[in-house]
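[Help] Beginner question about ligand-bound structures

Sorry if this is basic. My supervisor gave me a protein sequence and a SMILES string for zinc ion and asked me to "get the holo structure". I don't really know what that means in practice or what format the answer should be in. Inputs are pasted below exactly as I got them.
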Amino acid sequence: MELPQTPTSLCCCRKSIPGSGPPGAPNRLSGNQNRPQGGPPGPRSPPLEDVASASNFRAFRLLHFHLDLRLNFAVKEMSGWLVLDLVPVQPGVQTLVLDSHPSLLVRSIDCKVPGTGTGTGLEEPVSLTYRVDPFTDYGSALSISLPPAVRTGRMIRVTVRYTTTDGPAVWWLDPDLTCGRSRPLVFTQGHSVCNRSFFPCFDTPAVKSSYSASVRVPDGVTVLMSASRTSYSQPDRVFQFSMEFPVPSYLVALVAGDLDHVDLGPRSRVWAEPCLLPCAVKNLGGSVERWLAVAEEMFGPYLWGRCDLVFLPPSFPIVAMENPCLTFIIASILESSDFLLIDVVHEISHGWFGNAVTNATWEEMWLSEGLATYAQRRVTSQACGEAFTCLETVVRLDALHRQLRLLGEDNPVSKLQVKFEPGVNPSSLMNLFTYEKGFCFVSYLSELCGDVKRFDQFLRDYIQEFKFQSVVSQDFISYFLRYFPELQEAAVAEREGLEFERWLSGSGPPPFEPDLSAGQSLIQPVQDLCDLWTTSDPPDPSRLRPFDLSAWNTFQVVLFLDRMLDRSPLPPGVMSSLSSCYSTLFDGLNAEVQIRWLQMVVRNSFYPDLPRVRAFLHKHTSRMYTVPLYEDLVAGVMKCVAMEIFCQTQRRLHPNLRRTLQQLLFGPGLAPPPDLATPPAPATPTLNGSAPSSPLETAAAMATAATATAAIALRDVNVSA
Ligand SMILES: [Zn+2]
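Answer (accepted):
No worries, everyone starts somewhere. Holo just means with the ligand present. The predicted complex, written as structure tokens, is below.
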């Protein structure tokens, strides 16, 4: 594989990461000082960033940035300028390097520097020279030569005028791809390293700053951002936003289209296209405020003011994204109320874990996802009961073990601390380990503490200690051991088989899993039914009678189908009996259930239910409900059916999804038949996005491929960002 052209500094060790908190905040990222003897693992190698700006983002403190953009739907273009307020913190800095992308065209750059007098005013702008260098297949390096007058400790203001079109972060939807089908819509998706195609930035979670924005749009378009709206000027059609707290670049997000809202509570509001809104309101009701209150009780005040949600059309590439003040969530999830609940609570939990306290490097995504998953389950335990929460956990841990069986226990992607080679796309490591192994580690720490409420208090204080900063694992662990000196005294970090070092840098399954027996009343019937179907051929109807699937909740049915999928292929007689028992019932249930049943149909080549597969793929146009089924069709004997369905439906698919499916059906680099040709689309930020470029990424890509063919679907891997 061709490695990216990177500056040598990318390969150098880094001793520290600069403070990323509010202006004036002390550096808090190197938690290694005062590390207790016999405590947690020693200082790990400094993280390798996958950012072009890594060569010098430590040379500046970013105070604030402002975006001033005009959206042009006719040509699918955003144009305007970015203003960066920066303080050089290292002497002799002559170059500013920002992450950028080939889809972003820089028009001019200027800079204001402090005057020569003692005042703090900035002089007239001077034009700067710049160049764009290739960096990786997901970005480029924008190097800006600074004027000689730049001085350490004195703010400069750099303005970049630019235009951006349809890079990985910016998704333009023609009216046909929206739910209402009458007006276009555009949204951005920054996670993990896509926002460099939205605006030039330090595209690393280690750097945070406040931001503001002015966005001008055509008549009839409403703009929302991951910030508070401060004003709206009707004659100019300009929306203004302000995010007063420091956030990393990946949490800057925008959506613009035909959007309407309904208030759910004093600080929560649901936004959607008008045709979706009643359904969204009906499904959420007052739940958001209730879940928020439960989370606040456990983890302290919600810091972001607004807690709104916007439902996006099926082209949204993931399930949900925890953008501050405004969670982005796919409308398709409205079909499955239990999944909607889990996803919304998960995104709310990111308000504390991930957004307030952020992983400083993508190599330790578990600090966001593992902690958010733990917090999500603490909230659902309170709000929906222990049994339900344990059941949901079992579904996900099942998927984790399935993935491990496929990958092998020594696969490096199963580590909580992965090691990036420069240029590896961090999006390729969005996997279940960051969520579920991370969750198990946090559960283990809670178990060590011995009192779940005391552990809640620890998490509350952890947020208070590190809020608006970016941390590494060592910060979290050191804080844990300082918080519980008796555990430090007992050398819990060194317990054989459960060493913290093993948790963080060991591959394989979690060394500990929490006790989920509280879910037994819901889980045991599922297991009993699975056993019945797989031990007799087919089971006697009288023995099936006690199992009333229509009374089960979604996660029970999903667990049943997942476990039957694990045992596929099944004897033909069993598939036939399963179909006559449940097919009609599943037709009336939600898409999460249907897709699993249809995966069974495909993997067992059960032709009588093939019309149901066709109907499903004609109805659903989201990545999460199409890709897994296409993958199964392609892997089996039904590939020609997949091609036929693709031909019939491709015009209603987003170009990025179309490209993913084309690659699935025709192979990478192979052109589809002329009648299937579609325009090229930018790489997507999902697991199938780009060609592997290193052994680790290859492993991740293999994981994706394995996922495709053996019972782990994208929806499991990429459930929530
Ligand atoms: Zn998440």
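A couple of things worth pointing out: The radius of gyration is 25 Å. The longest strand covers residues 60-72. Feel free to follow up in the thread.
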